[in-house]
Write a structure and sequence with these properties.
The chain folds into 2 domains: about 5-210, DHBP synthase, CATH 3.90.870; about 230-329, Rossmann fold. Helix content is about 30%, strand content about 20%. The protein has helices at about 10-15, 40-50, 65-70, 80-90, 105-110, 120-130, 150-160, 195-200, 210-215, 275-290, 305-320; strands at about 5, 20-25, 30-35, 60, 70, 95-100, 115, 135, 165, 180-185, 185-190, 205-210, 230-235, 250, 265, 295-300. The relative contact order is 0.17. Bound molecules: threonylcarbamoyladenylate and magnesium ion (MG). Magnesium ion binds near residues 138, 139 and 147.
Length: about 325
């Protein structure tokens, strides 16, 4: 795929409208954007970045008018939330809020919360307003690499994997936005960024709760959804036999006939398309988790491309039942 660096904002809007991904400048770092309400488009972000697992993404809104569509505004901490929004939006500031149904699970890695930002960058602002849809956009780098602050950095990272990089010049802040959650009358800083703890402390008590500090291995990120039902990875459901009276649900990769041996079946992708599978993964896991099962068995997906991210997520879910998304409760 040929990658173009351009300033053609209309072309960006058109690609985004078609469910494609585009790299865009923000005032912090360049982001790799997709329509946040299109799970297949969002899956392309993970694919291009080669993330080994799904991390929750930041959703960039066209304006505050969109907030009510995407999140349930806090009831208890409403005043504090509004003060922060008035002061720091639009800007390099991200707030984690209770997500509404409309936000696809792949955007939030299955969490009940979503990180929301309104960028002040004129290029991003124009594109997201013209599109009139929220944009999911993590930093536009390959996994494990530093965030890009110029269009050329993005080209070095993702050239050949995406169609278009919109050049807005070097970014102003060069580090990613400050991420906070407001709860119990205080401000938890989940990631430090351009809006400092000092600035935030004018608004209330501050707690620095950076998850990376507590994590000894990447798989232990306490941010991801893990099913409560035990999960086991299997190669193929055909040869699997549930024990007597055991209610087993199947997360299937291979085409399945409705089968009596499983109490519930969710097929990741009829077409065996890894993007579609990635987009469906968290939704299906959640559905199976709510089906009163004794066990979920998940068929291994091929490990190529996005499959590695899906497998990583499934492996984690199968080993690590104790990890709950406690960060934001
Ligand atoms: O400046 C930025 O924030 C850039 C630009 C492109 O907007 N974006 C960015 O996204 O840095 P990313 O995906 O590289 O980082 C997102 C951060 C991660 O630390 C993630 O854990 C956190 O936001 N995050 C996202 N959703 C969350 C949630 N529901 N709860 C807690 N943390 C969340
Ligand atoms: Mg990043």
């Amino acid at each position: 795929m040929k990658t173009l660096i351009s300033t053609d904002r209309a072309a960006a809007v058109e690609l985004l409208r078609k469910g494609e991904i585009v790299a865009l400048p923000t005032e912090t770092v360049y982001g790799l954007a997709a329509n946040a309400l299109n799970p297949i488009a969002v899956a392309k972000i993970f694919e291009a970045k080669e993330r080994p697992r799904f991390d929750p993404l930041i959703v960039h809104l066209p304006s505050r008018d969109w907030l009510g569509e995407i999140v349930d505004l806090p009831v208890q901490d409403r005043q504090l939330f509004l003060k922060l929004a008035d002061k720091f939006w639009p800007g390099p500031f991200t707030m984690v809020l209770q997500k509404r149904e409309i936000v696809p699970e792949i955007v939030t890695a299955g969490l009940d919360t979503v990180a929301v930002r309104i960028s002040v960058h004129p290029v991003l602002a124009e594109i997201v307003c013209e599109l009139d849809q929220p944009l999911a956009a993590p930093s536009a780098n390959r996994f494990g690499c530093v965030s890009p602050t110029t269009a050329q950095h993005v080209m070095d990272e993702l050239g050949g994997r995406i169609r278009l990089i919109i050049d807005g010049g070097p970014t102003e802040h060069g580090i990613e936005s400050t991420v906070v959650a407001v709860r119990g009358g205080k401000i938890d800083i989940l990631r430090r960024g351009p809006i400092t703890a000092e600035q935030l402390s004018e608004f209330g008590k501050i707690d620095i709760v950076m998850p990376s500090r507590k994590i000894s291995a990447p798989g232990q990120l306490p941010l991801h959804y893990s099913p409560k039902t035990p999960l086991r990875l299997i190669d193929n459901a055909e040869s699997f036999l549930p024990q007597e009276n055991q209610r087993v649900g199947l997360l299937a990769w291979n085409p399945v006939e409705p089968e009596k041996k499983f109490a519930a079946v969710c097929l990741l992708s009829k077409r065996q398309d890894l993007r579609e599978a990635a987009a469906n993964l968290f939704r299906h896991l959640r559905e199976l988790d709510q089906s009163a099962l004794d066990l979920i068995v998940a068929e291994r997906v091929p490990s190529r491309g996005l499959g590695a991210a899906i497998l990583d997520r499934l492996e984690r879910a199968s080993h690590d039942q104790s990890v709950v998304p406690d960060m934001l409760e």
